[in-house]
Amino acid sequence: MKISRLLFWTVLLFSVVSLQAQDGSPSPYSFFGLGDVSFKGTAENVSMGGISTYVDQVHYNINMPASLTELKLVNLNLGLSNNFIKIIDKTNQQWFSAHNVSYFSLAFPVGKKMGAGFGLFPVNSSGYMVYKKTNLGTESYKGDGGNTRLFLAVAYKLTGHISLGAEYQYYFGYLNRENYWIPNSTLNYTKENDFLDFTGSTLKLSALYKYKLAKKYYVNAFANYRLATRLSAQYRSGTRVITPLPGGEETVEYTTNADETGKINFPMQIDIGFGYGQTNKWFLGTEFTYKDLKNFRNPFYDPAYVSYKTGTGFKLGGLYIPEYNSIRSYWKRITYRAGAYFKNTGINIYNEDITDFGITFGLGLPAIRGISNLNLGLELGQRGKVTTHLVKEQYINLHIGISLNDRWFMKRKIN
After folding, report:
1. Which CATH number goes with the domain that contains 113?
2. pTM for the complete prediction?
């Protein structure tokens, strides 16, 4: 692929990701925190249970900055997702869907010991809509928005086995919540609107250890540490009394409830992983995540029935390549991936911990000519459970990752 063509697609895809026409998560759990978790890793990560332990020379592992030193080629990444959720309560069940751009990144080697990368992706999203009918009228709850991360990462190979990385993360986003009360007995109805706008930044530190054993076997281990920070927020709240009209609606009365600024505590997170494999053949890895969610605080949305605890997660996954350099069989060059995960989200609602578990599968389809590839992932999972106040979610997430590679900054040699 020519450099000019790669640059063209970079600009185009970055513009696509920057569009705000994203579907938020339809999950009712996206009401809590800063929204539902949107980014679980690249399509390659997700297909292996979400582990970030695996690194190679042609894919940028967005979750691990230190992996940049392994890159030998410029790598452009774009991810898309299609999410389907069945929400089940005591009386009903219903399917919802959301379609989003998952991530964009561009990474490249800088000499033999360094690498750099940048990108953008939605971290959290909210897009729920809940109705509740009573004898007196109808209550409606609707939310949209989310939290987006812009990041810049660098890494340096300290020794032949150890790499260190750092990533600057800038967060920005908004949450818009609309609550309606439509009584049966009167024409007018009430709409309460809460709008939260926030920005902030933090730093992630990363270390990677990779050691080659005999016969192409190797082990690797990594650790990430994301520092806690405080996001600056602007909160506005108001209530409208509305009269519906044939051509729209008319506000009869408006009351300002709040217009204030404040801080949102954004938690620290630690990721630790270990893996073992054979180069260009197979890999098996595990990962443990610790999120200090008990220190999360959003002073503008703090219902008494919700508390935040330590969030933890365990992931297991791997890959298998029958014959990576096969000339006769394309199917032998495909990368087959699978994994599983279990997470305690750290959110407690009405004294019930919200847990999340699932299994994953995926394929890495190499380009027939060249070193780029298409990565497909399938995620099957379940979150929550049916109680008086809670719902159970069963979800099917489809992930598509486009990984384009090229050689930059290399002088051509003429014999």
Report:
1. 2.40.160.60
2. 0.89
